[in-house]
Amino acid sequence: MSQRKNNSNKTKEKENSPPSPRLGETKSESGTPEKSENHSKNHEKDSTNHDGNVTRGRRESFVERPSLMDSHSQSEFAQNYYRGWFNFFAITLTVYAIFSQFTNLLGEGNLIGIEAIKRMFVRYDMWPTWLSLVLASFLSPTMEKLVVKQILPYQVVKILHIALQLMLLIGGTVVAVIAKWPLVPTLFYLAEVLIISMKVHSYFYTNRELQLAFQNKEEEIVKRSKTQWPENVTYANFLDFLLIPTLVYEIEYPRTNEIRINYVGEKCLSFVGIWTILHVVMTHYVTPVLEELPNLNPFVAFCSLSIPCLLCCTLMFYIIFDVCCNGFAELTYFADREFYQDWWNSTTLDEFARKWNRPVHLWLLRHVYLEGIASYKLNKKNATLVTFLFSSIIHEWFMSVSLRMSRPWLFILQMGQIPLITVSRFFHLEGTRMGNILFWIQLLIGVPLLTILYCREYYSSIQ
Predict the structure, then answer these.
(1) H/E run at residue 163
(2) Quick count: other Cβ atoms within 10 Å of Cβ 227?
(3) Region 235-246 average pLDDT
(4) Rounded CA gap, 293 and 285, in Å?
(5) 101, 111, 227, 359: which one has the fewest Cβ atoms less than 10 Å from its Cβ?
(6) Confidence (pLDDT) at 416
């Protein structure tokens, strides 16, 4: 299977960025990571002003473009030669979901997944914590207003912002541990803690770049938006940033002209259907095996979980990045729907990491990799390693707090991708069918292995 080189705008450019478990890259001819280029050929570049502060000629990361699997647009997916097969699989899954709900309603008297949704989302004891997270985040624009009005110097507000981010992360960790919610609600809560922390960080540091560009009259940056700094420092602007499905702050984003009710309805129905299938797979093929893990032969467990676990991960990806992100984007008039690229055609792990989670990729690129180069004078190799390490630590924190036990399995597997990426390049697997085959084999091995390593001890503890 050849790697597809084109994107939603049908350009042929490769995107260069540092490798990370959530931030992949391609390489230049010399083999060194380069700064990323987006699909509209804009690029990130560094410049230093007279007092040593670093501003970044920040690329126009956001352009109007459809989701890759959006059948309502003129996307490549909608025009694909094999679109009849896609329709067949969609109809098959839809019929399976309807029949499963119907038979469960007749046999059990309720719909599949309803109780699971109640346990995960309709938890009144979680509402105060969700509300406190949102309210705490509004300290960020408040602090920015202190900079605008010159009430406090930038360095003091920077320290306050760091304290705010630590409060969100540490406070969220303490709440998740003390509350003792079930596993899935804890995962959702920690994800929101991390999302808000990343948004707060991007809001503050991007506004600093805009401030320096405004003061130094950097026309290339200043003229990119109709609204100029500090006109953007309002609570309404920050609330808009919180609601739209992106982690990287900009004064303005490309917008749609209207909310398509039929599109929102389709995403809601898609959620119901995919959730039904996910629940059936989990309850019939995954959970029974996980509950027996402490007494089950590891090889038997691996064989039983390999396909179901990968299928569940694929369904969760679709729910989060296609259904939920596109749904929120439609409701907030957000026109840039590139939440993922064609990761299923990946031939190396770093390409997969770059493509499957675009919001996090862009955040790491701007606020870890480029920040390390610009502010801490790291070379590209060290900045890449720092980005890799940062992402691995965050993911290990996520798993440790959710499961309430500290095991470094995810950290080891993520850092272990570095030699695998090197081997892939040594054998020139990039863009080859063999590279794609090996990529899928790695997923088939890695996902169930990680599940067994964590759940074996988790289920032993709760039993």
Answers:
(1) helix 154-179
(2) 11
(3) 94
(4) 13
(5) 227
(6) 86
Rounded Cα distance between 440 and 418, Å, is 17
Mean pLDDT of 430-441: 92
Mean pLDDT for 405-418 is 86
Q: Alpha-carbon distance 324 to 78, whole Å?
A: 20
Strands (E), 170-319: none
Average pLDDT over residues 99-113: 74
Q: List the catalytic residue out of 43, 161, 279, 395.
A: 395
CA neighbor of 361 nearest in space, from 42, 76, 33, 16: 16
CA–CA gap between residue 98 and residue 294 (Å, rounded): 35
The model's confidence at residue 260, banded by pLDDT at 50, 70 and 90, is very high
Q: 91-114 in b/e burial notation, b at 16+ Cβ within 10 A? A: eebbeebeebbeebeeeeeebbbe
Q: Where are the alpha helices (DSSP H) in 127-260?
A: 127-137, 139-148, 154-179, 183-215, 219-222, 235-243
State yes or no: is 395 an active-site residue. yes
Nearest Cα neighbor of 206 from 221, 226, 191 is: 221
pLDDT higher than threshold 50 for residue 268? yes
Integer Cα distance of 102 and 104 in angstroms: 5
- Spatial neighbors of 316 by CB under 8 A, at least 6 apart, are 278
Only one residue has tokens 């996520």, namely 398
Q: How many residues does the chain have?
A: 463
Whether the predicted pLDDT of 106 surpasses 60 = yes
Peptide bond into 33 cis (omega under 30): no
Tell me, yes or no, if the pTM score tops 0.85.
no
